[in-house]
Amino acid sequence: MSSTSKARLAVAGAASAALLLLGSAGVADARPGSDAQAVAAVADPAYATWIADVAAVTTPAAGYLEQRLGVPGGRNAVVLDIDNTSLETYYSGGITTPAVKPVLALATLAKAKGAAVFFVSDRTELLRWPTEGNLKAVGYAFDGLSLRPLFTFDPVQATKTKTRAAIDQAGYTIVANVGNNLTDLDGGHAERTFKLPDYNGVLP
Ligand SMILES: [Mg+2]
């Protein structure tokens, strides 16, 4: 079973458990529009809903990049998380995971406007080769790929923040940092952050 399927099952299990708890308390209500259904909807949104929610963030982000990268000078960079930000990890299984199209468009715009694109992911360094291949295969052009170093036990946010600090120190101005979890975004080293949906941690 793929990890995506497992994640979906885990979500379904959690929603069922919530329904069971509601049931045992005597307040279960499975009618359309009930709280019980709302719990399930938030836990596992439909693909189209997710893409619409992503686009609601990337559309203003694109407007911002058009304007910000139109200012001459500087070595600008955009930082992107990978899973459920740049690749449809939760919604698509398979060896090559498709790009999240609105984010691919954002990355393409950033490159066209002269910015560097850096991926910063908590995937282990052991997955560098397939990750790099996947990103290229689905159309991303990028300048760097930073993965979780081996033998590091730092929390996600700490490793990601350190990486952005290193990008800063290499002489780049990170004009935008895009991710779907707060651990992608907290810690500074970006002029603007753009938070994509994670639906309360369902999408890692
Ligand atoms: Mg992610």
- By DSSP, the count of extended strands is 5
How far apart are the termini?
18 Å
| Ligand names | magnesium ion
What is the string of helix and strand elements?
A: HHHEHEHEHEHE
Number of helices: 7
What gross morphology would you assign? globular
Q: List low-pLDDT spans.
A: 1-41
Give the proportion of residues in helices: 40-55%
In the CATH hierarchy, what is the superfamily of the largest domain?
HAD superfamily/HAD-like
> Structural class, judged by helices and strands?
alpha/beta
Q: CATH topology of the largest domain, anyone?
A: Rossmann fold
CATH first level of the largest domain: which class? Alpha Beta
Instruction: Give, in spatial order, the strands making up the sheet with the most strands.
Output: 3-2-1-4-5
Please give the largest β-sheet.
5 strands, parallel
Overall mean confidence score, pLDDT: 84
Q: From the alpha-carbon coordinates, what is the Rg to the nearest angstrom? A: 19 Å
Domain count: 2
Features:
204 residues; alpha/beta; Rossmann fold; 2 domains
Question: What's the arrangement of secondary structure elements?
Answer:
Layout (H helix, E strand, L loop, with lengths): L2 H22 L10 H9 L3 H22 L7 E5 L20 H12 L3 E9 L3 H10 L6 E5 L7 H14 L3 E7 L2 H4 L6 E4 L9
The protein binds magnesium ion.
Structure explained in plain terms:
The model is unreliable at about 1-40 (pLDDT under 50). The chain has helices at about 5-25, 35-45, 45-70, 100-110, 130-135, 155-170, 180-185; strands at about 75-80, 115-125, 145-150, 175-180, 190-195. It has a five-stranded parallel sheet with strand order 3-2-1-4-5, sandwiched between helices. The radius of gyration is 19 Å and the shape is globular. It is an alpha/beta fold and about 200 residues long. Helices cover about 45% and strands about 15% of the residues. Helix 1 packs antiparallel against helix 2 and helix 3 runs parallel beside helix 4. Strand 4, helix 7 and strand 5 (about 190-195) form a beta-alpha-beta unit. The longest helix has 22 residues, at about 5-25. It folds into two domains: about 1-45; about 45-195, 3-Layer(aba) Sandwich (Rossmann fold), CATH 3.40.50. It contains seven helices and five strands; from the N terminus they run H-H-H-E-H-E-H-E-H-E-H-E. Magnesium ion binds near residues 83, 179, 180, 181 and 204.
